[in-house]
Write a structure and sequence with these properties.
The protein has about 180 residues and is an all-alpha fold. It has two domains: about 30 residues, no CATH class; about 140 residues, Ferritin, core subunit, four-helix bundle (Ferritin, Up-down Bundle). Helix content is about 65%, strand content about 0%. The protein is elongated and about 70 Å long.
């Protein structure tokens, strides 16, 4: 082996990998990152806005649903609100990993959200609004996953994981709807 050649470990140029990792200010974003980072951050911020609006909608539904026989819906609203908050936290963390700034601005939250807020008073209207919002979220995540492709596997996997939970939410809500 030539003295100037970098050692190869399992076919990888270790010296080149180490050199690419030298810019510590970029944190998790290495030279090998292939996606349009700003576009991914924008998508993730829109998803963050959607999750935050969903938290608010579910919390409102949880606190305002009343009446005999609505305990199951109330429990679902609370569980979904907590899971949507977890999604928002994951998205904000990923945005920071990509050297972005999570946008929690309440003045623009609804405009950036893919889902709508709902202030229905009837439990069936609440369930219907939440099911529509879940279906919007599922389709939004599906489109984001396709847009990212293989260029950012971490963000892609995050969106896949969140979408799977949104699909569970949609099933839960469908089961609460009258036949």
């Amino acid at each position: 082996m030539e003295e100037n050649k970098a050692p190869l470990a399992h076919g990888f140029d270790v010296a080149a990998i180490r050199a690419a990792a030298a810019n510590l200010a970029d944190g998790a974003v290495t030279e090998g990152y292939q996606a349009d980072r700003e576009a991914v951050i924008a998508m993730l911020n829109d998803a963050l806005a959607t999750e935050l609006v969903c938290v608010l909608r579910y919390k409102r539904h949880y606190y305002t649903v009343t009446g005999h026989g609505n305990g199951q819906a109330k429990a679902e609203f609370l569980e979904h609100a907590q899971q949507e908050q977890e999604h928002a936290d994951w998205l904000a963390e990923r945005i920071v990993q990509l050297n972005g700034s999570p946008n929690f601005n309440p003045a623009t939250l609804v405009a950036r959200s893919h889902a709508e807020y709902d202030d229905s008073d009837d439990v069936q209207a609440m369930i219907r609004a939440d099911l529509i919002a879940e279906r919007v979220a599922i389709e939004s995540y599906r489109q984001m996953i396709l847009a990212i492709g293989d260029k950012d596997p971490t963000s892609r996997q995050l969106l896949i994981n969140i979408m799977a939970v949104e699909e569970e939410h949609a099933d839960d809500l469908r089961d609460l709807m009258p036949n």
